[in-house]
Design a protein that fits this description.
Blueprint (H helix, E strand, L loop, with lengths): L1 H30 L4 H15 L5 H15 L5 H16 L4 E3 L15 E4 L4 E5 L10 H14 L5 E5 L8 H7 L8 E6 L4 E5 H7 L7 H6 L4 E5 L6 H7 L7 E5 L7 E7 L5 E10 L5 E2 L8 E2 L3 H14 L2
Parallel strand pairs: 3-4, 4-7, 7-8, 8-12
Antiparallel strand pairs: 1-10, 2-3, 5-6, 5-10, 9-10, 10-11
Helix pairs in contact: 1-2, 2-3, 2-4, 3-4, 5-6
Length: 317
């Protein structure tokens, strides 16, 4: 009897240990971000913690569907599809799951910014998109910043944001910082708080000096901004940095409607979860996100209209 009990105890311990091992192995598989199921759960955790729209019934339903679908998958391609569906609910149209970039830097055709005079007195500044792949932050920033400071006799400015689909906002605003007054130039409205971004902060983060008296004089001169349907994301943020200023006016077409901020999260397979975490807020208090930003003057000839307005502004002084 006693021997039988000992044998039963040993068998029970063995079976219990075996079952516990299976449970732990299963939990590890489900939570391992390199497994398809664990990958989905890992992404859902990131989205729920940080996503702009990760709250309410629509998100709860999308999360439940994603986690339910993940139980039956065996490949990362399936995981990507599930994450993409949930991502569009959690972050909206500006969020994306981006595959690894496999080309060389020289293969990405980024354009450098441009600073030229349109006549003897009006400085034209063209700001293309900027990801910092083949055009460095320094080249982008100093091309325009130095031109503005060097040509302090310019009587007005045209900032061309047409075709600027976005990228890194900081070199763009740093480049134009001599024309932007001190204080918050834009704010980001997150789920829990609104974070103001001052032009002083941008200058410091981009290793530029704070504005002096010469630059404060430039900030009173007329600034015309050109937009089109491709002006998006950081291009729209740059546009909003001038919104509400009495010496600024916008010309062209409504923008693309991606006036929100994204945060990239690198995933175990090299993909990047680009998640929208906040809306753009102008100095006027206006909140922008998925809707296009309309220009002050809608026109098919924005450059000519901008030049005419600047001359009119100067003649009225």
């Amino acid at each position: 009897m006693e021997a039988g009990f000992r044998n039963f105890s040993k068998a029970f311990v063995f079976v219990s240990s075996f079952c516990l091992s299976l449970v732990l192995t299963g939990c590890t598989f489900l939570s391992n971000p390199k497994s398809p199921q664990g990958y989905v759960r890992h992404c859902i955790r990131i989205m729920e913690k940080n996503g702009l729209y990760a709250k309410g019934e629509e998100w709860d339903a999308a999360k439940a569907i994603a986690l339910g679908q993940a139980k039956g998958i065996t490949t990362l391609d399936e995981a990507h599809d599930i994450v993409n569906e949930a991502l569009h609910v959690c972050g909206g149209k500006h969020s994306t799951l981006r595959p690894p970039y496999k080309g060389a830097q020289k293969d990405y055709p980024e354009e450098a910014p441009e600073a030229t005079f349109r006549d003897d007195s009006i400085l034209y500044l063209r700001l293309p998109e900027h990801l910092g792949v083949s055009v460095s932050d320094s080249l982008y920033k100093y091309t325009l910043y130095n031109a503005i400071c060097r040509h302090s006799d310019a009587k007005g400015y045209i900032i061309d944001l047409r075709g600027n689909t976005g990228g890194n906002m900081y070199p763009m605003l740093a480049a134009l910082s001599p024309l932007i007054p001190d204080g918050a130039c834009i704010s980001f409205q997150q789920r829990q708080q609104t974070v103001p971004i001052s032009i002083e902060y941008i200058r410091k983060s981009e290793s530029l000096p704070l504005a002096g008296e010469q630059e404060r004089a430039l900030q009173k001169r007329p600034v015309a901004l050109l937009t089109d349907s491709l002006t998006a994301s950081s291009g729209e943020a740059t546009l909003l940095a001038f919104r509400g200023l009495g010496n600024a006016r916008t010309f062209g077409c409504p923008t693309a409607g991606y006036a929100s901020a994204n945060v990239p999260y690198t995933l175990p397979d090299g993909y990047t979860l680009v998640l929208t975490t906040s809306r753009d807020v102008a100095r006027t208090g206006e909140i922008f996100c998925d809707d296009p930003i309309r220009p002050d003057v809608e026109t098919d000839t924005p450059l000519a209209s901008a030049l005419a307005w600047i001359r009119s502004f100067l003649n009225a002084l």
